[in-house]
Amino acid sequence: MKESQDDTIGALLRQQFEGPVADDGFSEKVMQHLPPRRRRKVWPMWLGVLLGAAACWICLINVPLLHVGWRDWLAGEPSTSAIGMLLAIAVTTLLAMGWGLLESRNR
Amino acid sequence: MADSAAEARIDQALVTRIRLNGDRRAFEQLVRRNQGMVRAQLRRLLHGDAAAADDLAQETFMLAWGKLDQFRGEAKFSSWLYRIAYTCFMQAHRAPVKHDHADDEAIEQLPAPMHAIDLQLDLERVMQRLSAAEQAVLLHCVQMGLSHEEAAYVLAMPLGTVKTHAMRGKAKLKVWLADWRDVGTEETS
C-alpha cells in the first residue's frame, strides 16, 4: 500500500516535469559566445621543479653525510652513510608521491 | 540503463576530442545533447522563469568549456553539468527561499480541492512549500530520474541526506495531497 502511494506521488511528480526543453537556437547562441579555449600553461610547473631542485642543492651541498654517502655508494660500499642517504631519498620520494596522489584526488 | 551508459560513453568521447585538440564542434555536440535537460533543471529550480534559466544555462556551458580539464570522469558528464548548473543557481539565488520551512498545520487547513483537473496546480503549490533541499532532491531523483548517488553528487550532499530528503518530501506531499486520494476513491466508488 505504502509503495503504491509512493508510486502515485512519483508518477504525479514525473507528470509535472515538462522534460527536456527544445533547443530553439540556444546551442547556436552558446557557441557564438564561446571564448577561445585556453591551453593550460606548463611553464609554472617546470619553473617550480627547477627552483625546488636548486633550493635542495644549495641546502644539501655542504652536508658531509651526503658527500661520504655518495662516495661510498660510488665505491660500492654499503656504509651507514650510503644507506642513510638512500633511505632519505626513498622517504622523500614516497612523501612527494603521496602528496601528489592526494592533490590529484582532491581536484 | 544501457542507453544511459551508451549516452555517457558518447559524451566521454566528445570530451576527449575537446581535450586533445580543442574541438569546438565536439563541444557543440555536447551542448546540443545536454542543453534540454540542463535548461529543464534550471527552469524547475527557478519556478518556471525561462529567461533567467536560459541565462544560467548559458553560464553553465561557458563554465563547462573553461573547466573541462577538471572533469575527471568520476561521474557522468551530464551529472557534472547538472552540478555546475545547480552551483550557478545557488550562487545566483543566495537570498533566503520563501516557504523554506512550511507550516504543516496551515497546509493541512487548505480547502480540499474539488476538481481533479486542479491536481497539478495543487501539486505545484505544495511543492513550493517543501524545503528548498527537499524540492531539489525530488526534482533530481524523481523528476529527472537520477539515482540517489548521482543526486548526491549534483547537489553536493551526503548520500544519507539525499535519501532522507527524498523520503520526507514524498511523505509531506502524501499528507498534503491526501484529500485528492479521498476524492479519487469517492469518484471510483
What does this protein structure show overall?
The complex is a heterodimer of chains A (107) and B (189). Chain A is mainly α. Chain A has a domain at 62-107. Chain A has helices at 2-16, 26-32, 43-60, 64-75, 80-106. The longest helix of chain A has 27 residues, at 80-106. Chain A is elongated and about 80 Å long. The mean pLDDT of chain A is 84. Chain B has 2 domains: 2-92, RNA polymerase sigma factor, region 2, helix turn helix motif (Rna Polymerase Sigma Factor, Chain: A); 104-188, Orthogonal Bundle (Arc Repressor Mutant, subunit A). Chain B has 10 helices and no strands. In chain B, helix 1 (2-21) packs across helix 2 and helix 7 (132-143) crosses helix 8. The longest helix of chain B has 22 residues, at 24-45. Chain B starts with a helix and ends with a helix.
Features:
heterodimer; A: 107 residues; mainly alpha; 0% strand; B: 189 residues; Rna Polymerase Sigma Factor, Chain: A; Arc Repressor Mutant, subunit A; elongated
Number of strands of chain A: 0
The structural class of chain B is mainly alpha
Beta-strand percentage range of chain A: under 5%
| Overall helicity of chain B | over 70%
Instruction: Determine the most extensive contact between two protein chains.
Output: A-B, 30 and 40 residues
Quick one: overall form of chain B? elongated
Q: Overall 3D geometry of chain A?
A: elongated
User: How confident overall, as mean pLDDT of chain B?
Assistant: 84
CATH topology of the largest domain in chain B: Rna Polymerase Sigma Factor, Chain: A
Short description:
Chain A is mainly alpha-helical and 107 residues long. Chain A has 5 helices and no strands. Chain A has a domain at 62-107.
Topology record:
The complex is a heterodimer of chains A (107) and B (189).
Chain A: H1 2-16, H2 26-32, H3 43-60, H4 64-75, H5 80-106
Helix pairs in contact in A: 4-5
Chain B: H1 2-21, H2 24-45, H3 50-66, H4 77-92, H5 104-108, H6 119-127, H7 132-143, H8 148-155, H9 159-176, H10 178-188
Helix pairs in contact in B: 1-2, 2-3, 2-4, 3-4, 4-8, 7-8, 7-9, 8-9
